[in-house]
Please model this.
Amino acid sequence: MMISDTLQEQQTVQISAHNLLMKFNQNTLFNVPELTFKQGDVIYLQGDNGSGKSTLMKILAGLITPTQGQVISQGFAPKPWWQPDNLFGKAVYLHQHPYLFEGTVKYNLTYALSQLKIPVSERNDRITQAVNMAQLGDLLNHNASDLSGGERQRLAIARAWIIQPKLLMLDEPISNMDKQSQRLVLAMINQLKQDGTGLLLSSHQTCGLTALCQQHWHIKQRTIHTSMHVPAAETVHQTNTTELHYGTTD
Ligand SMILES: Nc1ncnc2c1ncn2[C@@H]1O[C@H](COP(=O)(O)OP(=O)(O)OP(=O)(O)O)[C@@H](O)[C@H]1O
Ligand SMILES: [Mg+2]
Model:
């Protein structure tokens, strides 16, 4: 391995935005001088419907370009000279209605890994762990298009977890889910947190997610307020974090 690669891998990966302005049709959605999202961060992104949560995540994932400002990535392994070194794919964005591949649950879980050069034993370990974590064991041979909303979300997070991204953005990961599905998804998110994955988690209202977060980004009045204080959940859904540890034994 080259020394420069080693240095890159030791650096914390991060995406930062400077003087960001986003407008649609002359209407300002938000305007923010500085934002930094890095490995180890667990950030709760709050904002009313239509305030721009999904748009911000897509900007940080390199899927859309802001009207003004720079979005810069640091600490990621350098791309070969023939590939453009853009933001795309550095932070994984999981859509609020996740797209699944046509085919079985197993195919969805294994496809991305088949593209990576990793030993078969490690590949199998990751698949087994993802299946257990998402409790998808009974559904492996089911067609992904037949899954319920909660099962789809679990599969989408497990599929993202399998490729072990350094930064992961989950858009409304527990909205429209019953308590049991919420608990499972929160356990998966907690596992990602334990793994040191940087997480940006959106929801229009405080919820079970907030108990896991260490920072708060709030989109309101066309700007983004950042704070190290995370508001408590408004609802009775106060998550007991000891329930959230996946696969740990006392
Ligand atoms: N490509 C686009 N062209 C024009 N307007 C857009 C486009 N994408 C988003 N918008 C508008 O920008 C605003 C913010 O949308 P966004 O999806 O980011 O909000 P959100 O905070 O994620 O909302 P929700 O809580 O409903 O998911 C909305 O008013 C939306 O209609
Ligand atoms: Mg949205």
Notes: The domain at 13-244 is CATH 3.40.50.300 (Rossmann fold). Confidence is low (pLDDT under 50) at residues 1-8, 235-250.
